[in-house]
Design goal:
The complex is a heterodimer of chains A (131) and B (119). Chain A has 131 residues and is α/β, with parallel strands linked by helices. Helices cover 26% and strands 18% of the residues of chain A. Chain A has one domain: DsrEFH-like (Hypothetical Protein Ychn, Chain: A, 3-Layer(aba) Sandwich), CATH 3.40.1260.10. Chain B has 119 residues and is of the alpha/beta class. Helices cover 34% and strands 23% of the residues of chain B. In chain B, strand 3, helix 3 and strand 4 form a beta-alpha-beta unit. In chain B, helix 1 packs parallel to helix 2. Chain B starts with a strand and ends with a strand. The chains are: A alpha/beta (131), B alpha/beta (119).
Chain lengths: 131, 119
């Protein structure tokens, strides 16, 4: 990913980008390919937030093992996000509760938000991209 | 207003590309501009000129090509997503080009709105 370190669109504009992750890590390609966009956006020095909601909360689950389904395990990438200055990670409380999950079950530090708090955060964004 | 469009689903199975096309065409008719459409995930398959739908059906890639030719819309297909799905320069319909995800991020930075069409 070193080729992405100095990307710049030349405008010097920094916008607030939110990436809304709604899908389980496996079963569809959205989480994997979505992560690529997140990394590129950070390489453009934009203000990046990631939200995990619905089955998207499973993307952060500890102990994912993809050997049985013979696909790439990319869950380590979430732990590397800090290295790309992506530190704003939010999860939806209701989605966690519905799946019996707590912060202890997740591989990274997150901020848990209520529906109202999430709505306020979304309203602050310039760009929301949903995968 | 300048609209950037992101399409995340392939043609025919999903309505995303059709809805995006109608949105883009209408936005242009109303005096807005759509400088670029970015195709990601299975959306890259919208660029395949080898698709030959029945004559009484719309031709998804062809009508994107026509919109691009008439209104200068830049149709960008993500290179990484395209390579996974066998989309190369050889199969691209007119008006489409293959480039990187930076083109998507640029739309978010530079345009007034980025509108996503997908599931």
């Amino acid at each position: 990913m070193s080729d992405m370190d100095e990307m710049d669109d030349g405008s010097g504009i920094i916008k607030k980008f939110m990436f809304l992750n709604r899908k389980a890590p496996h079963g569809t390609v959205y989480a994997l390919e979505g992560l690529e966009v997140v990394l590129i956006t950070a390489a453009f020095d934009q203000d990046v937030s990631m939200v995990f909601t619905d089955d998207g909360v499973y993307q952060l689950l500890k102990g994912i093992d993809t050997k049985g389904i013979e696909v790439k395990d990319f869950s380590k990438t979430y732990r590397a996000l800090e290295g790309y200055d992506i530190e704003k990670l939010y999860v939806d409380q209701k989605s966690m509760d519905a799946r019996g999950l707590t912060e202890e079950d997740l591989i990274v530090d997150v901020t848990v938000l209520s529906v109202d708090e999430m709505a306020n955060l979304m309203a602050e964004q310039d760009v929301v991209i949903s995968f | 207003m300048q609209f950037g469009i992101l399409i995340n689903e392939g043609p025919y199975t999903h309505q995303a590309s059709d809805s995006a096309f109608l949105f883009a065409r209408t936005a242009i008719e109303k005096g807005h501009t759509v400088p670029r459409v970015f195709f990601y995930h299975d959306g890259v398959n919208n660029s395949n000129r080898l698709a030959t739908p029945p004559q009484d059906d719309r031709n998804v890639s062809a009508r994107w090509s026509k919109l691009a030719a008439e209104h200068g819309v830049d149709l960008v297909v993500c290179v990484a997503a395209a390579q996974r799905r066998g989309i190369t320069d050889d199969v691209l319909a007119p008006g489409f080009r293959i480039s990187g995800l930076g083109q998507l991020v640029e739309m978010g930075i530079q345009y007034d709105r980025l509108v996503t069409f997908g599931d």
